[in-house]
Amino acid sequence: MPDPYHVLFLCTGNSARSILAEAVMNREGHGRFIAHSAGSRPTGTPNPFAISLLQREGFDTGFARSKSWDEFAAPGAPHLDFVFTVCDQAAAEECPYWPGQPMSAHWGLPDPAAVDGLDAVKALAFADTYRALVRRIQTFAALPLATLDKLAMQKRLTDIGQDKA
């Protein structure tokens, strides 16, 4: 089996969307992918609604921690093959230099952590975000990566982020 692809999911706080994406990619990637997550301004703590949802979905949440994207731009960090931003703020921010020029795309989703209201309303927002990430990640994981040229790959990654895949 070839070496797994390393995928980094970025968001501002690294407390919800990017952590959900990391968990889903590691499960849906079936060993072909190793997912990571990070934030430009990490909150320091995963969102409890994200952790609760992952646990209900059968994930071991021991991996979940809110961390800076600086960890992945430092010497000794994993070589990244793909970098996806999953929140609108991260798409507009200047990203650090990623050695090896990984493929990247913006897969923005509304922030479920910003939803106000009853816990049931917040949980529904997290569930919607989770389902959108599962759909995008399953589509991505099914791509014939070895046979796509760089331009075709970039188009497919962009389309996935716009739910046109």
Describe the structure.
The protein is α/β, with parallel strands linked by helices. The chain has a single domain, classed as Response regulator (Rossmann fold, 3-Layer(aba) Sandwich), CATH 3.40.50.2300. It has five helices and four strands. Strands 2-1-3-4 form a four-stranded parallel beta sheet. 39% of the residues are buried. The model has no long low-confidence stretch (mean pLDDT 91).
List the defining traits of the structure above.
5 helices; globular; Rossmann fold; alpha/beta; 4 strands; 4-stranded parallel beta sheet; 165 residues; 13% strand
Compute the number of helices: 5
Order of helices and strands: EHEHEHEHH
Mean pLDDT reading: 91
Q: What share of residues is helical?
A: 25-40%
Supply the CATH class: Alpha Beta
Strand runs, count = 4
Largest sheet: 4 strands, parallel
CATH topology category name: Rossmann fold
Return Rg in Å. Answer: 15 Å
- Describe the global form: globular
Distance between the termini: 27 Å
Oligomer: single chain
Number of domains: 1
**Strand ordering within the main sheet:** 2-1-3-4
CATH superfamily: Response regulator
Structural class: alpha/beta
At CATH's second level, what is the architecture? 3-Layer(aba) Sandwich
